[in-house]
Amino acid sequence: MRYTSPSCSPERFAYLQARRREAVSVHVLRLLVLIAFLFLWEMGARWGWVDPFILSCPSRVLVSLANLYADGTLFLHIGTTLFETVAGFLLGTALGVALAVLLWWMPLLDKVMDPYLVVLNALPKIALGPVLIVWIGAGMESIIVMAVLISLVVTTVTVLGGFAAATGEKQLLMDTLGASRFQVFEKVVLPASVPDIISALKISVGMSWVGVIVGEYLVSQAGLGYLIVYGGQVFRLDLVMASVVVLCLLAALMYAAVALLEKRIRRRFSA
Q: Residue 268, SS3?
């Protein structure tokens, strides 16, 4: 087919077509890898390559999900975990970014808090689970606080590192010209830190899931983490694998939402 578009050169058109073909190929290969994995998993369980009692198989996972749907508890557990994760993610991210801005705005406070942030970042926040249960109670609130704590410190450290890397000759020039602290932040620091903020969002998604699932291990009476613990206790490993599969799907959807937000943020700051 001959090139007829007047909007770009033939070379540019050929380049765009090659990029589109590459993107389609990547998606097709990803789908083929998933199909191959599910096929090998199913056949491995049927032919005795793996122990179906321990690793289950896709057909048994579907049966477990169908049973949960039939007794009306599937969406209850999904909704509980999803609400806790989204709440923890939003609160942890918002508080982490706000704390990073505060520490950048007040260099003395940043120097004072730096060793404490290092220690908190290295501390396994999961160890605080029993303490949170005693302080807050054995309920959804303690699970959300667990997710907030895990994502808060990581977000703060990542975004603050981006703010520190953005301070350079441009900030020195604006300081020389008499720019205010807010103008430096708005015109120099924030646009230059967009990649770090996006990176913090992606990290915070995973950390929020970790915090929620660990919290549900400890105190919850509903949720996917509760199903995993319950299935392990009664040796219903099909239920465990079904919960893990649902977790993977939900985490992928949440990550895709963050990726969509990333495109909009980059478009906003590149305009």
A: helix
pLDDT in tens, 11-26: 777 777 778 887 888 8
Number of domains in the chain: 2
Residues 113 and 18 in one domain: no
Q: How many residues does the chain have?
A: 271
CB atoms within 10 A of CB 39: 11
Domain shared by 98 and 216, yes or no: yes
195 and 258 in a single domain? The answer is: yes
CB hemisphere CA count around 56 (13 angstroms): 21
Pick the residue with more confidence: 159 or 57? Answer: 159
Q: Is residue 5 part of a domain?
A: no
179 pLDDT higher than 70: no
Measured CA to CA, the distance from residue 55 to residue 196 in angstroms comes to 38
CA distance 130 to 146: 10
Q: Classify burial at 120, counting beta carbons within 10 Å of its beta carbon; exposed 0-12, middle 13-18, buried 19 or more.
A: middle
77 found inside a domain: yes
Token pair 């590149």: residue: 270
Question: For residue 22, what are the domain limits?
Answer: 10-50
pTM of the predicted model as reported, rounded to 2 decimal places:
0.76
* In contact, 204 and 149? CB cutoff 8 Å: no
